[in-house]
Structure prediction request, 190 residues.
Amino acid sequence: MKTSAPTHRHLPGDLAVWFFIFAELAVFGILFIGFGVARSLDPDTFSAGRQVLHPWTGLINTIGLITASYLVAVAVHRLRHRQPGVTPLLWGAIAASSTYSFGKLWEYADLYSNGYNLGTDTFFMFYFFLTFFHFMHVVLGQIILVVLAMKVSRGEYNGDDMNGMESGASYWHMVDLVWLVLFPMLYVLA
Prediction:
């Protein structure tokens, strides 16, 4: 009878990154609660605001971020198992996530050109604040992915020490997770 060796599970990446991730999730959680309370107090304003948004752009943004997260996960797996193709996967994740960046910038420009901004009403105050706060996290995540891709291409990350790669990937997945809550909250349920 064959017995398998026990597997040792560990928290991927650096513990400090996880403290940062949990702090960021707490901030987003507080904002989500504020959004929910405001929506319950003024459902007509939130419903009218949602009607102005571009759900197809939101869906394309979602597909871009999910695709990027998949590519990052495959890149981590390949690096861990010393398989080739890690750098192109990371650049692919950056490209896929850029659909979100360009889509969000287009949506902001369209809404602003139609007279919507932070001061329009409570819905748009939350919409612009939440999505721009998230957008800044996406940009930081993209910068982290660029750094990871450059380090992998220079051989600085080769599977021996996964801490930097796992830390960057964990942060990226947090950014994606937040959007998976924001998208239905803003575009579908408001």
In short: The two ends are 57 Å apart (CA to CA). The chain has a mean pLDDT of 93.
